[in-house]
Amino acid sequence: MSSPTIAAAAPVPLLDRWRFGARALVADFRLDAGLITIFVASRIIVVGAALVAEYFIPRNPALSPGADGPILRSLTTWDGWWYLGIVANGYHADPVVGAYSNVAFPPLYPAILKVLSLPIPGYAGILGVLVSNVAFLLALGLFVRLGTPYIGRRRASLAAGLLVIYPFASVFAMAYSESLFLLLMFATFLAAERRHRAWAGIFLARGFRWSPRGPSILRFIGQKEFQRHAHARHRQEQHGHRKTLIHRGEAGRISKAIPQHLA
User: Fold this and answer.
1) Which range is least confidently modeled, 49-58, 98-107, 246-255?
2) Which of 22, 119, 135, 249 could form a disulfide with 180 if both were Cys (CB 3.0 to 4.6 A apart)?
3) Nearest Cα to 67, choosing from 116, 114, 128, 113?
4) What is this structure's pTM?
């Protein structure tokens, strides 16, 4: 009698693998309609606040915008001025304003703006605001995806909505690097959760280059890995304990059955 043969699994075509990966990626960034509504409403509030600040409140003369134009004057101030200055003129070791140099600002965000603004250099300010808002919206999708296995999708979406309406979340609407750092942080966490160590390392490296807060990601991942290994070790110990109890039970039944059989 011939032994049964197991047919080898047919290789999945490359195009099908790409389609599956694209669908999984879209699912990771999927947002509920309610969260999108909150996001759009928050952007309208930010724009309204910028208009009020520009037309009805005396402007601080020491506050320089990174780009000129309605609304942009408010959304490209503070760090936005520094980032857009790097996009236009690059980094300088010498002080740019007073005793301050622009080398303290991470290079990835202005590098992206520099590439995007090559065809339209006069629109770097608009592009900076758009990149920040798109990155924040994508980060919200990953935030919901990360929280769903622990608290459910409805509560995860609620948590993301609370982040959107948090007062200091207005920085995610400005020409700052915070939105992209948030996106990289959540991408690192999600890759680590799925044990994609290579991608987690890539996103983590981008986070280190993106912001001086990058080490906080490494600390969190270390804690997660420690918890995962501790949980796996605990499960292994429980499994070994159950096997020991089973073997003892079987040995006890055999020891009882042998005298009855001999009798």
Assistant:
1) 246-255
2) 135
3) 128
4) 0.75
